[in-house]
Specification:
Structural class: mainly beta
Order of helices and strands: EEEEEEEEEEE
Shape: globular
Largest sheet: 7 strands, mixed
Distance between the termini: 40 Å
Number of helices: 0
Radius of gyration: 14 Å
Length: 119
């Protein structure tokens, strides 16, 4: 069983920065692709960034150059550094773990942390 707990959300002015943290517990985490997703009111959940077990990263186009995902396998933590925040980044942000099973992967989710970008 994998548990994910996000923290670090809050209210920030446009142009500001926040750092989200995801504390993970469970097995096979170091082998898992970890990611951050977000969901704004009335919209579908969208992928923001992912990082593989080997450290390869990928980002949705709208956050490239502003957000950075990283992981610390020794601490079982995943981070999302968000700079130059815009009002359209306002959403509930969720940590995701894709844990490898025998022939597939299983998704685990945290409860989310709210990010509000507003003046």
């Amino acid at each position: 069983q994998v548990q994910l707990v996000e923290s670090g959300g809050g209210l920030v002015q446009p142009g500001g920065s926040l750092r989200l943290s995801c504390a993970a517990s469970g097995s096979r985490l170091s082998s898992s692709t970890m990611g951050w997703y977000r969901q704004a009111p009335g919209k579908q959940r969208e992928l923001v960034a992912t990082i593989t077990s080997t450290g390869s990263t990928d980002y949705v186009e709208s956050v490239k150059g502003r957000f950075s995902i990283s992981r610390d396998n020794a601490k079982n933590r995943v981070y999302l550094q968000m700079n130059s925040l815009k009002p359209e980044d306002t959403a509930n942000y969720y940590c995701n773990a894709k844990v490898p099973m025998f022939t597939s992967t299983r998704d685990y989710w945290g409860q989310g942390t709210q990010v509000t970008v507003s003046s």
